[in-house]
């Protein structure tokens, strides 16, 4: 039995979060940014002085994250960390803690609890393969590393000719390498996932593509 879930997986800075949030809004469904949970875990561990490779202690933190999602605002210990978790070094921390099986286990049920009767659009690295394997629609959303770095730089108002831009590109490539080669739930496109390359697409075009795919899936499953 397929779950009323659209699972969007893909690499860092591919735009999957923006697309997923807009698809959820268009359908009136709940939205889950699973990457935020791993970033929150990394940030919480850093704040507690716990090394990202300390599996037992990081998993304990993950299981009891004092987090609240209020619209676009994310609170950790009642502090707004919506921007703090988007820092590049916290992104690398998220990749580090995501390698730890105990951490992934601690966050698995928390992610599944976001599913409501209306439906759920979620984005991450293993939404379709591990968290919601019965999702009605699975998508692997990607773009070239250079395009993803350009998008991130524009968000941060960083010139594309700068050393900072090269640092962003290197970070994205390093995170791709880490996510694709981890032993637990590595990032990859599975055979039952639709490929959506947004390198040459606007956000609106990508959202329309996802909604069209879901509409067609819904008709074939009736």
TrEMBL record:
Query: What EC number(s) are associated with this protein in UniProt?
Result: 2.7.4.25
Highest taxon in the source lineage: Bacteria
Output the Gene Ontology cellular-component terms.
cytosol
CDD domains registered for this protein in UniProt:
CMPK (cd02020)
Q: Does the keyword Mitochondrion apply?
A: no
Q: Catalysed reaction per UniProt?
A: CMP + ATP = CDP + ADP; dCMP + ATP = dCDP + ADP
Q: Which SUPFAM superfamilies match?
A: P-loop containing nucleoside triphosphate hydrolases
One Pfam family per UniProt: Cytidylate_kin
Q: What is its main location?
A: cytoplasm
Q: Which InterPro entries match?
A: Cytidylate_kin, Cytidylate_kinase_dom, P-loop_NTPase
- Where in or outside the cell is it found? Cytoplasm
* Binding sites annotated in the UniProt record for ATP: 10-18
Where the record annotates domain Cytidylate kinase, the positions are: 6-214
The UniProt keyword set, sorted, is: ATP-binding, Cytoplasm, Kinase, Nucleotide-binding, Transferase
GO terms for biological process, alphabetical: nucleobase-containing small molecule interconversion; pyrimidine nucleotide metabolic process
So what family is this one in? Belongs to the cytidylate kinase family. Type 1 subfamily.
Give the protein's recorded name: Cytidylate kinase
Originating organism: Alysiella crassa
